[in-house]
Amino acid sequence: MENYLIVKSIVMFVALVAAFGYFFLKVKRLYQIMMAVDGVVEKPVDRISDRIKVLFTDVLGQTNVRRKLMPGISHTLIFFGFLAIQVHSLELMIRGVFPSFDLLHIIPSIYTGYLFIADILAFFVLVGFAYALYRRTVIKPEYLTMGRDANLIILFTCVIIISFHFINAFQTLMPLEAGAASHSGIFPISGLLVSIFGLSGLSQGQVIFGYELSYFIHIGTILGFLIYIPGSKHLHLLAAAPNVFVKPLEMEKAILKTDIEDEEAETFGLGKCSEFNWKNVLNLYACTECGRCEELCPASGTGKPLSPKKILHDFKVDLFDQADKLLGDEKDEIEPLMREGSPVTDDVLWSCTTCRSCEDICPVNNQHLDFVIEMRKHQVLMEANFPAEMQETFTNIENQGNPWGFSADTRADWCKGMDVPLISDKPDADVLYFVGCAGSFDDRGKKIAQATARVLQKAGVNFAILGPEESCNGDMARRAGNEYLAQMLIQQNAEVFNQYKPKMILTGCPHCYNVIKNEYPQFDASYPVVHHTEYMLDLANQGRLTINRKEMGDITFHDSCYLGRWNNIYQAPRELITRVNSGGNLVEMDKNFSKGMCCGAGGARMFMEETIGERINNVRAAEAVATGAKTVCAACPFCATMLNDGILETDTVIPVKDIAEIMDEATS
Amino acid sequence: MKIFVCIKHVPDTAANIKLVGDNGFEDSECKFIVNPYDEYGLEEAVSLVEKEGGEVVVVTVGKGAATATLRSAMAMGAARAIHVQTQGQFLDSTLTAKALKAAMDQDGAADLIFTGKGSVDTEGAQTQYRLAAAMGLPVVNEVSRLTIDGQKATMEKEIGGGEREVLEMPLPGIIGATKGLNEPRYPKFPDIMKAKKKKIQEMAIGDLGIDENAGASQLVKLEAVPERSGAKMLEGSVQEQVAQLIKVLREDEKII
């Protein structure tokens, strides 16, 4: 026995040094890659105390993971069980090298309590995995990557847990040395194994053999796991917590302001993996390919080649493929992300509607759009590579300040005869109504703008518009990657705002709302911005609108991405609908609130052809029709157009109305 | 290969034109662009030079504000620009041709000259012919396909009824480009920035010995195109609408 323990000490020492050494080198390389990339991170990691709180809620609390209930519970069980046994495993490793080390001896009561809890939590890991296996073999969701990687990890972990229980079971039967504390009675689950397998009948030699065998299987698997993790998708075990720690704390986000005036810059946007920023790289490490993004992605769901999960996976593969060049200071040799044979093609890149459902649902808070938009920037600015139909749109915006190319000086024609003042004539107006291109020029949008103006007039709001001084807000150009054009437009509008210094800016279009609220401050124009949904609710709450309730039948509300996921406005329109409708319910579509499906128009998709797969708006319109509602309510002129076109493809005739139109009809 | 591309600084066709006085218009609020037909010529010239090497020089005869238009053209790939400056927008095409010739002669002989098939502001479609006459060069207008083979250009032009005419022309010569010849590129951002630093050689039209007001024709008056009267919508059932339609065609329009 003495000799055996000496051999065991040596074997364990060598194995631990080798495994941890290898692990350390792998992690060091991952860290070096993360630090070797050149991309800019706009916001520093600040508000550390808030971030520590996030670690407690999101990581320890597992709240993000449980947004998908059953897999979330399963993950929580696995997470805590696996975490719980780590102290025990560490103790076993130390004891392997130094046989006299025994925590039960040093802190008997604490360690006893710990072992008791760990023994139960460990068993729950198996319960969690039972569900995971059921999901992978019976439910088989399409969005879940069924790779060898995942199965191997499940196998590894199950072996670790089962051997853990056997170690404990044999431990209770081990001969006690003088003065050593007994383990019997502190393993509620492992103790059962003794009676189930009749282990108490074993000889002392057999018990020791069983213990040692379990020990080596246990530690061996853990060390194998340690070596395996850094190269697998289960890198998320290491990267998820730091990734969540540095996540954007606000849900509102602004697209990175590219310094296009930097004359030293050789390239703009994201062209190759060395141009990632360190957060992008951490995102890639943290992705565990759970596929929740793909499940909700309107492009993936309608047969487009885009999957947010796959983009991140492909970029990770590319990053690792080219890591030697990155670390070896051969950045010039690095090949572009989009190249001949690259899995990320034009169709992948341009299918994104920037709806943000991927980012919203991601359990590790990855920012998929940061990749997509920076790549689009690179393709447009550096390669002039974008869907052909966008050229005319860009030119129209550039020349006339709107995507359709209507003459800029007719911008206020939508309100002819409505007595809507220009702010140049009424600089003290309380509200500057930023009408937007759709409201100003598009036939459908104009009706919404007119309804909005009428509601404002009924409520006696002192408002004015910019008229021809208004230009396209820049959202579309920016999301289409044309940062140069976008900055031109934003600067132009920002200068006009700064000239009039409006007390409040009201928008009817969520795209105007989002970009003015969240991105104009990058251009020194910070003003209070409100969307007409919230503003009309305010007016109603203040009693400034006389609501004549009407029987409208059931109404379903379509969440605009840029109101909901981008700005967390979900309740105001629903509240208004409920208030004005005296006969009928607010009925929800299958996908609603933060999981609401995009209409297909965002991210400049409104102005691109949609030739692959089903049309997104048709799919969404069918969902709306399926509610049986008498009216579909939207809060965005682009959504209204898309849904209406989609409904025309069905056999049902139901009107799509903007919330402003519903309010206009229901107020006096 | 040295190629001149003659471009015109014109108001965007989408812009509403506000007339001022008898024959002027408010051009300070109006967006100006490279004449779209000239862009086909420019794209063709730039692609040729990208393939064969050489230099593309854009030449314009126009107001001071045409600088911005020249920058746009240079962002698309022209190496430099020559700007013959005038006081007015509407220069007689004889004078434009004379000014273009003088500017190009100063710069040195070219292998090829492109123009558009006409400009979208005055729609005269005269300049390329007058320029050819002044320079003693052959000219083919409305070219929608082009191949250059040594000292010979082979071109196609639509002649109506789906027919195409194929023409050959010795170089140097003048080609009036039109839609179909290519898809003019959207400039890359670094090219837009580089274009800001490219050279524009400026000269007043008077310095070329040309009197801007001594054209062969004069613009007397500009008038807005009368707005088309609104369509008449017929209401009611199909039968009623048909009955109304027949009534309108017979009584109001007197067609049937």
TrEMBL record, chain A:
<feature type="domain" description="4Fe-4S ferredoxin-type">
    <location>
        <begin position="341"/>
        <end position="372"/>
    </location>
</feature>
<dbReference type="InterPro" id="IPR017900">
    <property type="entry name" value="4Fe4S_Fe_S_CS"/>
</dbReference>
<protein>
    <submittedName>
        <fullName>Fe-S oxidoreductase</fullName>
    </submittedName>
</protein>
<feature type="transmembrane region" description="Helical">
    <location>
        <begin position="209"/>
        <end position="229"/>
    </location>
</feature>
<dbReference type="InterPro" id="IPR036197">
    <property type="entry name" value="NarG-like_sf"/>
</dbReference>
<dbReference type="GO" id="GO:0051539">
    <property type="term" value="F:4 iron, 4 sulfur cluster binding"/>
</dbReference>
<dbReference type="Pfam" id="PF13187">
    <property type="entry name" value="Fer4_9"/>
</dbReference>
<feature type="transmembrane region" description="Helical">
    <location>
        <begin position="152"/>
        <end position="173"/>
    </location>
</feature>
<dbReference type="InterPro" id="IPR004017">
    <property type="entry name" value="Cys_rich_dom"/>
</dbReference>
<keyword id="KW-0408">Iron</keyword>
<keyword id="KW-0472">Membrane</keyword>
<dbReference type="Pfam" id="PF02754">
    <property type="entry name" value="CCG"/>
</dbReference>
<feature type="domain" description="4Fe-4S ferredoxin-type">
    <location>
        <begin position="278"/>
        <end position="308"/>
    </location>
</feature>
<keyword id="KW-0004">4Fe-4S</keyword>
<dbReference type="InterPro" id="IPR051460">
    <property type="entry name" value="HdrC_iron-sulfur_subunit"/>
</dbReference>
<keyword id="KW-0560">Oxidoreductase</keyword>
<dbReference type="GO" id="GO:0005886">
    <property type="term" value="C:plasma membrane"/>
</dbReference>
<feature type="transmembrane region" description="Helical">
    <location>
        <begin position="185"/>
        <end position="202"/>
    </location>
</feature>
<keyword id="KW-0479">Metal-binding</keyword>
<dbReference type="InterPro" id="IPR009051">
    <property type="entry name" value="Helical_ferredxn"/>
</dbReference>
<feature type="transmembrane region" description="Helical">
    <location>
        <begin position="6"/>
        <end position="25"/>
    </location>
</feature>
<keyword id="KW-0411">Iron-sulfur</keyword>
UniProtKB/TrEMBL annotation, chain B:
<keyword id="KW-0813">Transport</keyword>
<dbReference type="InterPro" id="IPR014729">
    <property type="entry name" value="Rossmann-like_a/b/a_fold"/>
</dbReference>
<dbReference type="GO" id="GO:0009055">
    <property type="term" value="F:electron transfer activity"/>
</dbReference>
<dbReference type="InterPro" id="IPR014730">
    <property type="entry name" value="ETF_a/b_N"/>
</dbReference>
<keyword id="KW-0249">Electron transport</keyword>
<protein>
    <recommendedName>
        <fullName>Electron transfer flavoprotein subunit beta</fullName>
    </recommendedName>
</protein>
<feature type="domain" description="Electron transfer flavoprotein alpha/beta-subunit N-terminal">
    <location>
        <begin position="22"/>
        <end position="212"/>
    </location>
</feature>
<dbReference type="InterPro" id="IPR033948">
    <property type="entry name" value="ETF_beta_N"/>
</dbReference>
<comment type="similarity">
    <text>Belongs to the ETF beta-subunit/FixA family.</text>
</comment>
<dbReference type="Pfam" id="PF01012">
    <property type="entry name" value="ETF"/>
</dbReference>
<dbReference type="InterPro" id="IPR012255">
    <property type="entry name" value="ETF_b"/>
</dbReference>
